[in-house]
């Protein structure tokens, strides 16, 4: 039933219609008419019916060693990069957890287990009533609503990107005399994030989380399966990191 429902979703249904069209043109040997639509069908099939996107993501996620909570060493602070939550005008706690919420839950767990005495929250900003507000500030409010004490939390304010988070953290490190911090972010983002923080002068202990490739989530994959649009999200995240790494190296940020 789930597979049937997935086939009826717009992207999968479009793939199904394109499959019928390609097969019909191939049957009639209309090769010229088949060229571009056939290429489009091939790209969609590789992305939606094979584990290519997941394998690409698994390689990126595998560049940082997996860690267990009990194995994480002590540090002076925990730095949680943004992307796991966003402000909400309708949620009861004023906070909406997104796909990357593992970042926030992992960082809070580290704080509760006293792996470090301070939690530093990063993130972007949002406009409300014509004013820019901090995602990190709102996360602190939301955590307070959940009963998590915010006395040991520090907001980096509105950050433009990972480099901005690294620069602001470096200023905190210098001001407070921290020797090293626990860096919490998605596993696929960790290579770029760790490189950026180290370049900014922050000594980090990597705590990767939020694994999104099926190989890391369930430990297996199918070489061929019915189309599923989720692969585009995985590929998009992988592609963003690859391009982002090139840009950061070109700018000398890592």
Summarize the topology.
Elements: H1 2-8, H2 10-27, H3 31-49, H4 52-61, E1 77-80, E2 85-87, E3 95-97, H5 102-112, E4 119-121, E5 125-128, E6 131-134, H6 135-145, E7 153-155, H7 162-176, E8 181-186, H8 190-199, E9 204-209, H9 214-217, H10 230-251
Parallel strand pairs: 1-4, 1-8, 4-7, 8-9
Antiparallel strand pairs: 2-3, 5-6
Structure write-up:
Strand 8, helix 8 and strand 9 form a beta-alpha-beta unit. It contains ten helices and nine strands. It has helices at residues 2-8, 10-27, 31-49, 52-61, 102-112, 135-145, 162-176, 190-199, 214-217, 230-251, and strands at 77-80, 85-87, 95-97, 119-121, 125-128, 131-134, 153-155, 181-186, 204-209. A five-stranded parallel β-sheet has the order 7-4-1-8-9, sandwiched between helices. A two-stranded antiparallel sheet has the order 2-3. With 254 residues, it is α/β, with parallel strands linked by helices.
């Amino acid at each position: 039933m789930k597979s049937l429902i997935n086939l009826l979703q717009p992207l999968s249904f479009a793939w199904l219609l394109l499959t019928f069209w390609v097969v019909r043109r191939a049957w009639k040997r209309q090769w010229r008419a088949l060229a571009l639509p056939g290429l489009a069908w091939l790209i969609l099939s590789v992305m939606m019916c094979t584990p290519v996107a997941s394998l690409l993501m698994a390689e990126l996620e595998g560049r940082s060693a997996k860690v267990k909570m009990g194995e994480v060493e002590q540090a002076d602070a925990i730095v949680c990069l943004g992307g796991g939550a966003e402000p909400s005008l309708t949620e009861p706690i004023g906070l909406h957890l997104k796909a990357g919420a593992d970042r926030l839950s992992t960082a809070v767990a580290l704080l509760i287990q006293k792996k470090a005495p301070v939690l530093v929250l990063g993130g972007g900003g949002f406009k409300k009533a014509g004013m820019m507000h901090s995602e990190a500030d709102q996360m602190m409010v939301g955590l307070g609503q959940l009963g998590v004490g915010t006395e040991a939390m520090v907001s980096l304010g509105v950050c433009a990107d990972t480099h901005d988070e690294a620069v602001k953290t470096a200023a905190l490190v210098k001001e407070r005399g921290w020797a090293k911090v626990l860096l919490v972010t998605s596993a696929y983002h960790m290579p770029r994030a760790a490189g950026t923080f180290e370049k900014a002068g922050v000594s980090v202990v990597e705590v990767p989380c939020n694994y999104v490739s099926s190989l890391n989530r369930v430990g297996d994959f199918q070489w061929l399966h019915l189309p599923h649009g989720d692969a585009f999200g995985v590929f998009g995240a992988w592609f963003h990191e690859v391009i982002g790494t090139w840009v950061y190296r070109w700018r000398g940020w890592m």
